[in-house]
Structures
1.
Amino acid sequence: MNVNDMSVIERLANSVVVPVVVLDKAEDAIPTAKAMYAGGIDTMEITFRTACAPEAIKAVAENCPEVLVGAGTVLNLEQCKKAIEMGAKFIVSPGYSEEVVSWCVENEIPVLPGCVTPTEIMLALNHGLNLIKFFPANVYGGLNAMKNLSAPFVGIKFVPTGGVNASNIKEYIDAPFIHAVGGSWVCAKADINAGNWDKITQLCKEARQAAKGE
Ligand code: 3PG
């Protein structure tokens, strides 16, 4: 299927890896997006961990139509609204925020709240969400935890982040309850700050190949 015919949720799966991007300077947003795109990854989550996040999201949304840009580390409704105003196409939170989830659902904006317990998953399900972030995956039981959670919550799909990398991505991606994985290893802050664009492209290629077992 052509990416233009895919929903946001389908595009996240198609990307396999949804990079978690931390930018110190908004001007690094476009070269980072292009470097990852050259490596076969056409989605990115620009995190609100740094002050330039809104400007960085806007730069990618306006200049890189081939890349699906979302906002990550969205902690409250104010950041969420700002991200959407700047052109973010999806919202990711490390935890479950009722105000963020309710607003996104009302406004038909794809949202992935972070849920690691049955109770949190039930809050997401109450809003009709069946795709959630699972963070930090390596701390909250990894694949085994998600496997067990997917038994009562039939149809739930996870995007695990935290400790996912090229050496374990295949295990994650092969599990039927995994939609895509997230992570920062393909676009480390140090590489972005140093302008190591070719390295970022290479890490993205390697991540996708590792996911396929190549
Ligand atoms: C996140 O917010 O999802 C994590 O910081 C990503 O985890 P990683 O840095 O281990 O890839």
Note: Residues 20, 94, 135, 161-164, 182-185 surround 3-phosphoglyceric acid (CB under 6 Å).
2.
Amino acid sequence: MHAVPRLRVIIEEDYNGISRAAASIIAKEIRTKPWTVLGLATGSTPLGTYRELIKMHREDGLSFSLVRTFNLDEYFGLPPDNPQSYHTFMFENFFDQVNVKPENISIPDGMVADVELFCASYEESIRKAGGIDLQLLGIGRDGHIGFNEPGSSLGSRTRLKTLAEETVRDNARFFGGEDKVPRLALTMGIGTILEARKLLMLASGAEKAGAVKNAIEGPLSSQVTASALQLHPQVTVVIDEQAAKQLEKREYYRYVEKMAKSVEHDTGI
Ligand code: GLP
């Protein structure tokens, strides 16, 4: 059965609510298809989702033994064992605590010598794995997804990207100073992300409210790369009250969710 195409907006009370809702969407996907190909994201936002998934693995037997994963991005020039690399982030906060097989994990390699060759081979491995079933996304304050900064082509593929100043400032907290933040990153492109069968974007807090509004209700624009989600047939956006506060149609989105719950058939993620 094919799910009805939709852009679904779920507004939860707080960060814990987002994390539980996102984890249950991901768990449902894995329980339906144990060999699911997951696209994964880093940043503070998905941390709670990973915590919930780890809990489900420990307490409810959720198994990742057949799951294949592809991460969105990695800082360029950081070796995998650097404490600030997205490699380290993913292993510490998720992979080391569930039963994903190491050979089923792919994260862009920030140390590659031949960037073009590497990017093409990353795309090829996604294709060989059968494509991404569910891609998890956060959103930057400038409306980026992955590291697709304002001005990125909406058809872009995995490539090397220059970070925007705002992103460098936002991520300085992890590096102990702006001067230590890498200026370049390898990231899946918007075209790559749009090929995933389902997208799940999370946002929390008032500082994301502008980006969320522009992404969901703004015009489709390369200046807000998350607005490309509007082109995708299966998108679920899970946000908290604070991140939802600039949405003009937020009462309508709540109403739609209430109606959806009263309809029996599965309307997709
Ligand atoms: C980085 C990541 C994005 C992430 C964004 C927001 O730029 N490349 O994937 O969505 O930060 O991060 P946070 O969730 O910490 O606000």
Note: Residues 15-32 form the longest helix (18 residues).
3.
Amino acid sequence: MKKTIIITGGAGFIGSHVVRLFVNKYPDYLIVNLDKLTYAGNLANLKDIEEKDNYTFVKGDIVDTTFVQNIFDEFAVDGVIHLAAESHVDRSIANPIEFVMTNVVGTVNLLNATRTKWKDNYKDKLFYHISTDEVYGALGNEGFFTEETKYDPHSPYSASKASSDHFVRAYHDTYKLPVVISNCSNNYGPYHFPEKLIPLAINNIKNNKPIPVYGKGENVRDWLWVEDHARAIDAIYHNGKIGDTYNIGGFNEWKNIDLIKLLCKIMDEKLHRDPGTSEKLIAYVTDRAGHDLRYAIDASKLNTELGWQPSLQFEEGLEKTVDWYLANEEWLNNITSGSYKKYYEEQYENR
Ligand code: NAD
Ligand code: DAU
């Protein structure tokens, strides 16, 4: 094998798309998927590639220092693409400490292990940290996040991600560890866990349950097709400049309520319901605490320097997403029938 890359969080939503892309595109790389399989990790996301010769899965917790060190003894690692994280803002509001452990301590464990293993020879090595646009805080009605925007996180989730970004940069500045960071906007597409807005709404519409819209539904997110994020990660892993940051976004801003109305229209068509049927399920509920008003990414650096751009229009991507969820009922039912059901009931009980 030409290279060995550890992808952390490879059984999650975005991680599974990154693993799939790398395993299929680079048959001469060994891809090691390192994942704890929390509630959000699901090996069913990788069924189509799990038998490939250049893929292997290791179950473990990045918070466990000894486990992380052992992995770097077992594999001659050339690169790390670090996606493992607690990723849901509402869960971070309910239980921040989990986010500090995985997102901060787990990241520092990985940084330490790579530094120890690589310190005599950094040539052709790379620690690639996957981060979020939420570290930049909230925008008003105007402007975009650029790579120079000052960090201003508001939720325990975004504070933990910001902290991990700072550690990654600190290891570059202090120990010269070869790192790169990207900060991406909201992803959507297949295998998205149904606690997040789009898959949660699809599932509820399908089951004729209320669609919980926080506050007035006026918050704005910039949505990106998840496979486009995976392609951006590929471009940055191979051609990004060491020590640099790249913003990734869809140039695709939607108010939550407008997005939900579009989704309702698509679902009415797919489920052969009368126009307007699904919209009746919209239920305005108590707002998220500290809810950031607007995120919007300026991804022009990635476009200019590495030639990346999104491949799909949102309407097309949303329809593909709906088709995927309707065709993969078993995947969805396996998730929504387990411990997630309890979380869902608690989360929405008093809203
Ligand atoms: P996800 O919650 O779907 O998946 C996270 C994965 O990490 C799961 O497979 C889980 O089992 C694993 N994991 C969690 N804790 C772990 C631990 N302690 N040790 C090992 N594995 C652990 O998350 P996602 O939405 O795919 O996000 C992946 C990454 O991308 C995260 O770092 C997130 O901050 C970032 N990101 C996400 C989005 C988005 O829209 N979802 C946007 C920008 C950036
Ligand atoms: O911006 C990137 C981030 O996008 C990632 O870093 C996070 O990991 C990812 O979860 C996502 O965060 P958001 O908080 O933006 O995603 P979520 O799907 O939870 O919510 C999207 C918007 O919809 C947000 O404004 C809150 C709102 N919302 C969400 C849920 C779950 C609702 O109105 N109702 C809901 O039930």
Note: The longest strand covers residues 29-35.
4.
Amino acid sequence: MSGEPSMLEARHVCFSYNRPIVRDVSFSLMPGTITGIIGPNGSGKTTILRLLDGIIAPLSGEVVLRGNTPLSSLKRKEIARHIAMVPQNGGSYFYQTVFQFAIQGRSPHLSLMGFESMRDEEIAREVLEMTQLSHYLDARVSELSGGEKQRLLLARALAQQTEILLLDEFTANLDINYQVELMRLVRRITREKRLATLVVSHEINILGTFCDRVILMSQGVIRHQGSVQEVMTKEHLKQLFGLDFTVRPLPGGRMEVLPTIQ
Ligand code: ADP
């Protein structure tokens, strides 16, 4: 990791609505790694993703792409060629087919006329293959299960062919099998394609298992960031959630975390 430029960097980013929501947030996303953000509801996690994707602009500080390009200097379509985001509750899409949905990911790359080329169709098929949805090409999105819909949202993001992937509560409401399956897929693609992936999640053990780095935040402030072992300590987690935790290190620098409920 050392010496490599970051793919995306938040530098002293602040943001307010009618009160400060994100305060002096700095971190970097590195190629080939998964970074996780965890924190109580309302701590500003989704707001950070929106700042990183350029949907909202920092009040002060900046978001910088590849070490030298401020996001604020880019148009929306240009940003979408570098950064793909899977938002929470990924939108409405009931009457589209799986293929039509996936190929939407190509829109940042289309010419002004907006027509998809054979290459765009090929890419849409490739990402559906990667996410094991090839046999559903002509199915309606509404026919998919929860886990399959999440894979489809990932497929659309991958069709953008960006080097940065932002996932907001990507495994929420899925059973543990699907959570693990999805995160294995995200990890494989992150490694193979050298993506810089950021995952916001409440699933503390999913983060402890799949992330290379973790950011703990509350009230708009990063309290700790670093490797899973450095960051996911019972002291830090108590500070964040006000609960006692049992933390057990696992092989490979992973952590198992359980709240101790009286
Ligand atoms: P998290 O993702 O950690 O749950 P959010 O980033 O969604 O937190 O929200 C952080 C805070 O910002 C919350 O208190 C929320 O009410 C507030 N907030 C989010 N979006 C808006 C908005 N559009 N207008 C005003 N306040 C907002």
Note: The chain has two domains: 8-82+162-259, 94-157.
